[in-house]
Design brief:
- The chain is α/β, with parallel strands linked by helices and 275 residues long.
- It has a domain of 103 residues.
- Helix content is 41%, strand content 11%.
- The chain contains 14 helices and four strands.
- Strands 1-2-3-4 form a four-stranded parallel beta sheet, with helices on both faces.
- β3, α13 and β4 form a beta-alpha-beta unit.
- α2 crosses α4.
- The N and C termini lie close together (12 Å).
- It comes from Neophocaena asiaeorientalis asiaeorientalis (Yangtze finless porpoise).
- Keywords: Hydrolase.
- This is Neutral cholesterol ester hydrolase 1 isoform X2.
- GO terms for molecular function: hydrolase activity.
Length: 275
């Protein structure tokens, strides 16, 4: 990336679970980015202040999206980012039964059960809640706190028919209200950028979102692209029918998969044209 884009690449070594839990990771990336954006630091590394983007894949895509939204709400930081590029990002923990979660429930690398456990780990929550969350008991109709937010990820309207197919929403009438009471972070837009208000999305920078067909997170990315477009943001949704979660890292022998090379090249090409 550095060579092909003639760009300075800064990788933020944010602290991980179990050393720290949400929202400390977001605080880390915001602090590091603010530091880097100081004129004297940009000058030190010969960085054009009008050519700065933020990017991340998977959990890093979550943090990149959250950082973009946080910057957008800070008058001093608005318009500091030219682009954001999100690679199969994690964007919500309210619905674990989107079509992609149902279709790829046991798909290797990131099956649904593992993804739900990762969320519980991130929030330092109770593993006893995992099974209930798998069937959306944490955002059932009797969980009032979740009611308004569910509209932001109503996939029956946000996803095209080619994606929704014959899948049915899983909306429990009654569930476990204790889950959100004990883990309110589930409903925090800093952890779930997909549920942010439309006014927060309006002035986000030009966006690239890469999604893969064989990935539980596919629909998170597609829904976010749709919501950003509705807010007036210029979005490129780059979908790979033969892609799987994490495929971009498989680009060197003996795991130099075609789809890994194609996703990487497509991503870098977009950055080259837009950064």
């Amino acid at each position: 990336m550095a060579e092909e884009l003639n760009a300075v690449i800064v990788s933020i070594e944010y602290r991980l679970v179990p050393k720290v839990y949400f929202p400390e990771q977001i605080h880390d990336v915001i602090r590091a980015t603010k530091y880097f954006l100081q004129p004297e630091v940009l000058h030190k590394y010969s960085v054009d202040p009008g050519r700065i983007g933020v990017s991340g894949d998977s959990a890093g895509g979550n943090l990149a999206a959250a950082l973009g939204q946080q910057f957008n709400q800070d008058a001093n930081l608005k318009n500091k980012l030219k682009v954001q590029a999100l690679i199969y990002p994690v964007l919500q923990a309210l619905d674990f039964n989107t079509p992609s979660y149902q279709q790829n429930v046991n798909t290797p690398i990131l099956p649904r059960y593992v993804m739900v456990k990762y969320w519980v780990d991130y929030f330092h929550g109770n593993y006893d809640f995992v099974q209930a969350m798998v069937v959306n008991n944490h955002t059932s109709l009797d969980v009032e706190e979740a009611a308004a937010l569910r509209a932001h990820l109503n996939w029956t309207s946000l996803l095209p028919a080619s994606i929704t197919k014959n899948y049915k929403p899983v909306m429990q009438t009654t569930g476990n209200t204790r889950i959100v009471q004990e883990i309110p972070q589930l409903l925090d837009a800093r952890s779930a950028p997909l549920i942010a208000d439309q006014k927060v999305l309006r002035h986000l920078p030009k966006t690239y979102i890469l999604t893969c067909e064989h990935d539980v997170l596919r629909d998170d990315g597609i829904m976010y692209a749709k919501r950003l477009e509705s807010a007036g943001v210029e979005v490129t949704l780059d979908h790979f029918e033969d892609g799987f979660h994490g495929c971009m890292i498989f680009t060197s022998w003996p795991t130099n998969f075609s789809v890994g090379i194609r996703t990487r090249n497509s991503y870098i090409k977009w950055l080259d044209q837009n950064l």
